Amino acid sequence: MGFAVSLLNAIFRRMFTSAGLRPHSAVVDDDGTTLHFWAHRSLLPPSKNGTAASAGSKETTTTPPRPVVVLVHGFGPDPTWQWAAQVGPLSRHFDLVVPALLFFGASTTRAAARSDAFQAAAIAALLAGASHLPGLDGQSRQVHVVGTSYGGLVARHLARALSGKAAVEVGKVVLCNSDLVKGPDDDAALAAKGGVSEVTELMAPADGKTLRRLMALCVHRPPKYIPEFIVHDLLRKYFADKREEKIQLIKGIVTEEDDAQLNSPLPQEVLIIWGEFDQIFPVEKAYKVKEILGEKATVKIIPNTGHLAHQEDPKMFNDILLKFLLPSSVLVNDAK
């Protein structure tokens, strides 16, 4: 990895550790499905020296366990890059679990499945496994699910997969720039924008030219100049790795033909956040997603942002997110 990318990687990891999160891995099924994830130490198994996990979440024996927020990333670099601006503000109120989706980073599986539903099943197994996250075992912990882009598709399945789990009470769901009603025509339109024949060529770029096109489409105001060595390093580290598997993930996205109940309303309260100038999934899709999710869904548009609204305007995004997730009494106390 080049120096610039290594430096950014170190900065983002430091933001995670400063928020009280620690990296961990767990095998969650019999197919060797292994998820690498970050979580607050209060949720993790005891350290190797036998001491109890501690300090990540400001909990004490006299305070009730805090709600949990699961952050599900989209296509692109590791989740530390994608959620760095959120983990600090969220960690003041919630215990976090931030998984790397299968075939991103160190997460992998021997199973043949490549769907967003399978990704969700793996995360659900992680959350339900007493040995994986003992801080969740034996406690009724409210779990909020937040997903961006492809991670929003996973979050939809995860909210359903967690329903009925004895140790998990699904709280609220947040979908960020995530087109749940995407179809072949949308894929064709996006491929045309990116100057490629298939959408998989754009979302899993094989060369620097295509990666530059993807980066330009993802943000409302892309930088005027990105050095070639940075593009090359990003491509090698985060896009070329497991590229064929990532293409299979795009092709394996569940459709209504696969699941007749796919676009039925979720039982949870849902917040849909969208960037005003999203070129990947145009902003009108936010309202189409709301239509299928029903009366419990609301839409918030972040002005002057694109597909990566949570990174382009993290302050506004975090304010919207916290106002949705936190009880009003907590917000009042925070404002004092």
From TrEMBL:
SUPFAM superfamilies: alpha/beta-Hydrolases
Domain AB hydrolase-1: 69-319
Superkingdom of source: Eukaryota
InterPro entries with a match to the protein in the record: AB_hydrolase_1, AB_hydrolase_fold, Meta-cleavage_hydrolase
Annotated protein name in UniProt: AB hydrolase-1 domain-containing protein
Pfam families in the record: Abhydrolase_6 (PF12697)
